[in-house]
Structure formats: structure tokens, C-alpha cells
């Protein structure tokens, strides 16, 4: 099994919820609005014996006449048509922007034409109700009644030949946010998405105001970190600039 982080770059985000590109070598954080957070946006691709699996889909920003995510995959010799599964933690725009793209007629279509998409059904309903600025309804509504979408209902397990995905709704970062444990015979990979976005947050009692239930998110991070140490998990950090993958 191979894990590849697909960095879309560093950004600052403030209460406007607009992601503004940030050059870590040249830009100064103090020149951004007070309260700006500095984050990486970093989907992951997992290559197993039978599958090419995406964990979240980034911002959906374009580059070189394609999605940044498509470009990043091609840099690793992966064509969009080769992706077999797309697992979505939640539908905030920085995690779901690459779900779809416009075709030549201006209509949204799924970005990965041969993939099955795994999405919590309650998360989709919630996102469609809440809408902008956290959710980009026009980009995700293509999921509705699409034959390639596998709707998830609460907690469960998926078996993909040599891998198992155990997924759980936490209700921490957002009401229907889900995390997953990906396992094969040798390894447990933990992807906490925005419940566990950065390494430093795992090591401290950090409670974020932007979380739906910040206290729960903090407590879960402490539990996951302790168990991860004991069981030697591999952690994937979606928003960490320096440490996308951490091995015990």
C-alpha cells in the first residue's frame, strides 16, 4: 500500500471563509486579517493492490486547464480515470471542491468518471440546506441520485479487497463529519480530516471555536493520539503544512 499527499498549497482563512493563497517563504501572516489561520489543503491518494482511493478532493481550484487535484495525480502518473473510489469526510468546500467539474457545456459532472463516491447522506442533506459560504451547493448537487454515489448511513465498514474502511460519524468539526480507520494486515491508517487536521493539535489540549463541538473534538484527539501511540497507527493530517503523514 502506498500513501501520497496531494498538496494544493498553503492558504490563510479568516471569518470570511475564503481561502487565500499564502507563500510560506515570502508572505507574512501578520499582514493578513486578525484571526487568520494558516493551513495546508492536502487530499491523499492510497494505492492498494486493487484500488486507487482518494481521501477528500481539495478546493477544486483550477491550474493548467484542469483541477489542481487532477494535476497533482498526473504528477504521480495517475490519470483521473484510474481512480476507483472517492471517500469524503464532509462536504466543506476545501474538502469537496474537487468532487465535480464543469464540462464543455458548463454543466457539473463528477471529476472521476470511473470512481464510486462514498458520502454520508445526512451530511449531503445538511450541506444542501446550509449552503454558502461553507458549502458550494452548485458543485456538490451532482451527487444527488447519481448512480456512482454510495450513500452511507451512520457508522459502518467497507471492504475493498485488501483494505477495510471503518468509518464513524463524530459530530465534532461539523454535525455529520466522519473519520475513518483504514486497515490491511500490516498497518492501521487514521484519517481524521478536520477533527484531527494537524499534528500539533494532537499533542495539546486545543479547542477550536470554528468546530461544531470543539470540546468533543479536543477530547477525541486526545483519545486517538493515545491509542495511536499504543497501536502504532499512521496519521494523515489534511491541514498540516509540515507533517502530512506521521508514523509511530
List keywords for this structure.
single chain; 248 residues; alpha+beta; Metallo-beta-lactamase, Chain A; six-stranded mixed sheet; 19 strands; 19% helix; globular
Description:
The chain is α+β, with helices and mostly antiparallel strands and 248 residues long. The chain has one domain (2-247): Ribonuclease Z/Hydroxyacylglutathione hydrolase-like (Metallo-beta-lactamase, Chain A, 4-Layer Sandwich). It has six helices and 19 strands. It has helices at residues 68-75, 93-96, 121-130, 137-140, 199-202, 214-231; strands at residues 2-5, 10-13, 20-21, 37-40, 44-47, 52-55, 62-63, 66-67, 85-87, 100-102, 108-110, 116-120, 149-152, 156-160, 163-169, 178-183, 188-191, 234-236, 245-247. The protein has a six-stranded mixed β-sheet. A six-stranded mixed β-sheet has the order 14-15-16-17-18-19, with no helix packed on it. The model has no long low-confidence stretch (mean pLDDT 95).
Write the layout of secondary structure elements.
Elements: E1 2-5, E2 10-13, E3 20-21, E4 37-40, E5 44-47, E6 52-55, E7 62-63, E8 66-67, H1 68-75, E9 85-87, H2 93-96, E10 100-102, E11 108-110, E12 116-120, H3 121-130, H4 137-140, E13 149-152, E14 156-160, E15 163-169, E16 178-183, E17 188-191, H5 199-202, H6 214-231, E18 234-236, E19 245-247
Parallel strand pairs: 6-9, 9-12, 12-13, 17-18
Antiparallel strand pairs: 1-5, 2-3, 2-4, 5-6, 7-8, 10-11, 14-15, 15-16, 16-17, 18-19
CATH topology: Metallo-beta-lactamase, Chain A
| Unreliable parts | none
Number of continuous helical runs: 6
Structural class: alpha+beta
Q: What fraction of the residues are assigned to beta strands by DSSP?
A: 25-35%
Largest sheet: 6 strands, mixed
Could you tell me how far the N terminus lies from the C terminus, measured between alpha carbons in angstroms? 17 Å
Number of strands: 19
Number of folding domains? 1
Gyration radius, rounded:
17 Å
Which superfamily, in CATH terms, is the homologous superfamily? Ribonuclease Z/Hydroxyacylglutathione hydrolase-like
Q: Biggest sheet: strands side by side, in what order? A: 1-5-6-9-12-13
**Approximately how much helix is present in the residues?**
10-25%
The name of the CATH architecture is: 4-Layer Sandwich
Average pLDDT: 95
Amino acid at each position: 500500500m502506498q500513501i501520497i499527499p496531494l498538496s494544493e498549497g498553503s492558504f490563510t482563512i479568516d471569518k470570511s471563509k475564503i481561502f487565500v493563497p499564502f507563500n510560506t517563504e515570502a508572505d507574512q501572516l501578520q499582514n493578513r486579517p486578525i484571526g487568520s489561520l494558516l493551513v495546508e489543503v492536502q487530499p491523499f491518494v492510497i494505492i492498494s493492490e486493487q484500488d486507487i482511493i482518494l481521501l477528500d478532493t481539495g478546493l477544486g481550484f483550477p491550474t493548467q486547464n484542469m483541477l489542481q487535484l487532477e494535476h497533482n495525480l498526473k504528477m504521480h502518473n495517475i490519470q483521473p480515470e484510474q481512480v476507483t473510489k472517492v471517500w469524503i469526510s464532509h462536504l466543506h468546500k476545501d474538502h469537496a471542491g474537487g468532487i465535480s467539474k464543469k464540462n464543455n457545456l458548463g454543466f457539473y459532472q463528477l471529476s472521476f468518471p470511473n470512481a464510486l463516491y462514498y458520502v454520508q447522506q445526512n451530511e449531503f442533506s445538511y450541506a444542501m440546506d446550509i449552503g454558502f459560504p461553507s458549502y458550494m451547493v452548485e458543485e456538490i448537487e451532482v451527487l444527488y441520485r447519481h448512480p456512482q454515489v454510495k450513500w452511507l448511513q451512520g457508522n459502518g465498514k467497507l471492504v475493498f479487497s485488501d483494505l477495510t474502511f471503518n468509518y464513524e460519524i463524530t459530530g465534532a468539526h461539523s454535525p455529520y463529519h466522519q473519520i475513518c480507520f483504514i486497515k490491511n494486515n500490516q498497518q492501521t491508517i487514521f484519517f481524521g480530516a478536520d477533527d484531527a487536521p494537524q499534528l500539533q493539535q494532537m499533542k495539546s489540549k486545543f479547542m477550536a471555536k470554528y468546530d461544531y463541538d470543539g470540546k468533543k473534538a479536543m477530547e477525541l484527539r486526545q483519545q486517538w493520539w493515545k491509542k495511536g501511540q499504543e497501536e502504532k497507527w499512521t496519521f494523515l493530517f489534511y491541514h498540516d503544512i509540515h507533517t502530512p503523514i506521521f508514523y509511530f
